[in-house]
Design goal:
CATH architecture of the largest domain in chain A: 3 Solenoid
Largest interface: A-B, 69 and 68 residues
Strand content of chain A: 25-35%
CATH class of the largest domain in chain A: Mainly Beta
Helix content of chain A: 10-25%
Oligomer: homotrimer
Chain lengths: 360, 360, 360
């Protein structure tokens, strides 16, 4: 099911100018250091120019100023932004792996009360519960599990091993990666005086906007009441935890293994590094950047860069780290200084009032 | 399958006193700021009283002292503890979503040598291995996977994508959330001198007590020999790791993304925050509280609050954090003080024996 | 399906010398403190010798010097290395739980264009996509999910809930634990000026070598282009994240909940503790040891032990921790010292030039 295109066709696709054989058939895209004959690659970073001499690629996307060695055997497509052109070409080749629209694998279990658009692809072993509503062009990969009353918007892709619990809402053009769990029970308990727990019923749902990507084995809990909300354009990496009633603002990105506790509201366009932890019931402003491994213990009210556990302004934590690295040596100097001062003190004490003594 | 009740019926349920229309039909429970007509809500926290003026809820659970505005259109149910009453009402409405007892989806695979009580619910695509034993009222959600010889106690709920490996034992009234893995191979290797590993066979099992909740995509490894044990009343959040041969004491709660290494024994009623790490082969006392992101490198023998990596008494770590935050400024003061002292030293050196010189 | 052996047979297996009844039938292996009649145990660590007096085991693997109490009722098998002997015996008993070679559960979905060796075991509900190639003696546990074009080498074991996306390559004798995801979309986005993201197509794959073990719910992303590579003999624990285009060197071990970011290259025989984070596009040397919870922000060029976030030489971070623990007390001493110095300064100022004053 792979796609091919001539150098000329690719050149048109990226609005570039071609130097080389227009009819050459290109079969895929690859990194410059790994590309082989028939493949196209790109140069968007000077650090990779050293690979131009030895690449086996048949064609390169380069900027206007690139100078090829006279011995170079590859064709060139000159563009304004080679990286953007690469994205376009990569998307072209990736689109060759289309699954057949409207396919329903006979092993899939589709509840009679589920409503699927004609073009939905249903892979082997997919389970679709009652009252689910699946819009056009959705792809349900083998082994995806939808409980009852799950709605999925047009063009979204749900991977194998994903579990969407009752009531989950997913928007359009989302990708839910394998093993992600949407709508599990939130972690809410009433603590008795004897230290035992009583469950707080979790009757809410998860609501995911459009153009959201959720990573493999990431977990997003249903709300206690109401909804846990992932807004449009959010990108969440693998193994991330989002607690009940949390809300993640538009176009925010969250790197792997970060945890957002319950009822916390993350602002728009936040960039949250890996292994960050945020306590519950706080919020962040828009345009907040949080360094990996930070711990956020209270609300962040100003956009900016934060770091540390508990987090402070990024540059302040960097100073703390520098200071901590110096600290063992400084402590030795401090002990030495203490001795010096005590010696000075003794000397001063031996001459209790300095000049007075000499006045005799 | 949703449930309704009159205000009078709800009032009886929570042993309260009603002010308003006894026959009004209530259809669900929601947060005060999100509740709509027909819904009941509650006020258990002064911070939410500001929503009372604008709530669309038809009825509120409030304490004896609550004063409604004269314009308020909602009914009131006065109770001693509004939060406890909310739990009761939430449980009532949640119970409306019962799955039919005794249901066996035809796509489920139930080994001929498995033993299921009549009332067990078996969802689509559930896989039940040989010699499994499933007690009354257990719910197996779509896509749950039980290897051979798994025993599940009465009233437990196993969600989709859960994998229980051979020999797993689960008690009564447990909830195992989607994607949790019980009984995977423990991480045990014998290291050869050349740095390669030889597998230590993992032949034990996982044993879970009664009233345990295990989070989505959490992993609890089988013991090398014997059992990894999760005792009664333990609540474990999502994406938590419990290593082989670990033991978690009664009524302990563990927040998301925490890792308990192999052969570690956690005491009773511990409260372990998120992203905590505990090394292997240690233990904690009963009633230990560990702050999020802490690292526990040795046994904790006294109940109390701990914090830091490596963890110390909670208040000590807070002092360390405060001190660290001051450190960059202190280092500047320290350099200044050094200069001052050296100046004093030079001055003293210029007058080597103070008054002696003046004694001439 | 469990196995038994006489004490004599076990003794031959481990090349030991037997003291006791050669014909006694042994039924399994267990820890010395938990072993019951019929079971064999071992003593490889002096700390466990105290259990020898009370053990119910019928046989013990011990070293040449072990002295049993005169009242001991167990047989002894003396060996050079009791722990190695234990491994051998544990493997013997574990091998009793063989699944029948060549079994194909009727509920499994095997694409007509997949190629399975005769001896492959296919459990219930397994899904095998087109163009998969599964070699001899592979075990696919119930609920394993293979997308199209997945290749698995001889003798590997794929557990339930595992998802191998298109193109995944797995070597020989690997164990992929339940819920692990190989080949999900890498986390790669182009950021627009308005803060929204554009997906970078992820068209590469995951390539796993021989003798690799991958933990439950661990995620290994496909490469953007080319391959994410896990080399021979690597052991990865549960809930670990390996980003797109990362490479893990031979015989490296990675403990639970660690995250290796995209395009990072980990060397051979690294030992990486739990909850470690490594940024992307860096590398580590061979034989690097990284303490749990460390953060690796730049390449490590020398083998050795590292610790901290950001990590430094292990012993340096230990010194930093010791210093930090002292810091709150030191700050008090520092303030006291400042006072003393200022007092000395005042005294010196009152006698601006020491003996000069007294010269009058």
């Amino acid at each position: 099911m792979s796609k091919t295109a001539t150098a000329h066709e690719i050149c048109e696709l990226v609005n570039g100018s071609l130097e080389g054989d227009a009819d050459f058939e290109l079969t895929g895209i690859n990194k410059i250091e790994e590309a082989g004959p028939g493949e196209i690659s790109f140069l968007a970073d000077q650090r990779y120019e050293r690979f131009a001499a030895s690449t086996q690629a048949s064609c390169l996307l380069v900027d206007k100023k690139f100078k090829a060695a006279s011995t170079a055997s590859f064709a060139l497509i000159r563009v304004n932004e080679p990286y953007r052109a690469f994205l376009t070409v990569a998307r072209f080749f990736a689109s060759g792996q289309q699954l057949p629209a409207g396919f329903r694998h006979p092993s899939a279990v589709i509840d009679a009360a589920a409503d699927l658009a004609d073009s939905v692809y249903v892979g082997a072993g997919v389970l679709i519960g009652a009252n689910c509503s699946i819009a056009e062009d959705v792809i349900l990969h083998p082994g995806a599990i939808l409980y009852a009353d799950v709605h999925i918007g047009a063009g979204s892709i749900i991977h194998g091993g994903v579990v969407c619990c009752e009531g989950t809402r997913i928007g359009q053009r989302c990708i839910i990666n394998p093993g992600a769990v949407l709508g599990a029970e939130g972690f809410g308990f009433y603590e008795h005086k004897d230290g035992s727990f009583e469950k707080v019923p979790q009757t809410g749902r998860v609501v995911v906007g459009d153009d959201v990507e959720i990573g493999a084995n990431t977990t997003i809990d249903r709300a206690t009441m109401g909804a846990t909300v992932i807004k449009n354009g959010v990108k969440i990496d693998n193994l991330v935890q989002v607690g009940h009633n949390a809300s993640i603002g538009e176009h925010t990105g969250i790197v792997s293994q970060t945890g957002i506790s319950g009822s916390t509201t993350v602002g728009r366009r936040n960039r949250i590094g890996g292994q960050v932890g945020m306590v519950g019931h706080i919020s962040t402003a828009d345009d907040v950047y949080i360094e990996a491994k930070s711990g956020i213990a209270k609300s962040i009210k100003e956009s900016g860069k934060y770091f540390g556990a508990p987090a402070v302004a990024h540059s302040d934590h960097v100073k703390q780290i520098v200071a901590l690295h110096q600290l063992p040596a400084i402590l030795k100097e401090f002990r030495a200084l203490q001795k010096t001062v005590h010696q000075l003190q003794r000397q001063a004490a031996e001459n209790p009032s300095g000049t007075d003594g000499s006045a005799g």
